[in-house]
Amino acid sequence: MVTFDGFIPADGGVCAAKGFTAGGVNIGVKKGSEKKDLALVYCVKKCAAAAVYTTNKVQGAPITVTKRNLESTKGYARAIVANSGNANTCNPNGVEIAEKICKLTAETLRIEKEDVIIASTGVIGQPLSFEPFETGLPVLAAEISELGGDSACDAIMTTDTFRKQFAVEFELGGVKCSLGGISKGSGMINPNMATLLAFITTDANISVEMLKTALNVVNSVTYNMVCVDGDTSTNDMVCVMASGLAGNKEIVSEDADYEIFVNALYAVMVNLARETARDGEGATKLLECIVRGAPDEEVAKSVAKSVISSNLFKAAMSAADANWGRILCAIGYAEGGFDISKTEVELASSYGRITVCKNGAGVSFSEEEAFKLLSEDEIRIYVDLRSGEGEAVAWGCDLTGEYVKINANYRS
After folding, report:
1. Rounded to whole angstroms, how far apart are CA atoms 307 and 394?
2. Per-residue model confidence as pLDDT tens digits over 55-66
3. Which of 186, 206, 223, 393 could form a disulfide with 251 if both were Cys (CB 3.0 to 4.6 A apart)?
4. Phi, psi angle pair for 123, to nearest 5°
5. Catalytic residues
6. Model pTM?
7. Do 229 and 326 fall within a single domain?
8. Using one digit for the tens of pLDDT, what is the confidence trace for 176-196?
């Protein structure tokens, strides 16, 4: 967990903020599975809302419908409905099914169907039946509560091995506010916007335009800097809903309150993003690459993402092998101009810290000590390009044989 001064970790996840209830149940989306597979998040009033989506040219039907709904309401929403077990992607009637689910959700909650954000995750290209939603959604709607964040989180998980949720408390103009969220993602993660699904709620009062701006800014340095396996999902979506029930003065410009809000959003999203990398399919280690001294931030991002995306380096980390040459290789094919001969690389963990490269060349170090250092479950890679002031951080995980096993049998 990453903590920040001025932000107090809070309980409740997606229900930490005033006005929000949630829950999750099993409705049988995937026949034979007893896992919870339908989540619902609801607010007592219309919320300012913003979302970012996958950049994959193939996009799930729920994304098409959510985009339409948010455009129709000019950026307002009251509910999120999300299922696991089926992505509702590449189906001839996918949009029709997604719209019917929104309509049913709206009728059940007595809201407008355009006020519903819809998301799906699971197997691509499998027909999605509407029948389980007809019987299961009303049951779920009757069960949602302020204590339902855990159940909602369980319901959106697929190959995830643990819940990903986090919340903080903070103040805006002396008024206490809360912001929290849930997220799922373990494989098919190389986002160009987000990672699979993340739903964030806040009771802060902020305009739609400022919420959109904040989400894009924070997303670019959190979810967008995660890579598990190099595959960009068809269903990636991160959305934020702001109820305004905290009662602070509305944020309508990039003022001091906006900066506090952005930092609170970062506190939640960076924790969710890191846990996504930690829980990569088959992973045993979280990798964090910190790049400094780049010509600018974009080059720093490119280098950091290149290192944690390298399958060769990820495999070496699985074996606790300090094969630093693979780091230099990944740095070398990253986009951007810099002098590789100035580069320095250090490896670190809770065990200690060692230098493996200076001025673009190897230096003497103890392989035995390096092995002990890399045997920890959280590894940091420090890269200094010594070519400017640009900085960035990216997160990934090691690559193990278990990843192949999971994905070789994903549909069975």
Report:
1. 9
2. 888 889 999 999
3. 206
4. -70, 135
5. 195
6. 0.92
7. no
8. 999 999 999 765 445 554 347
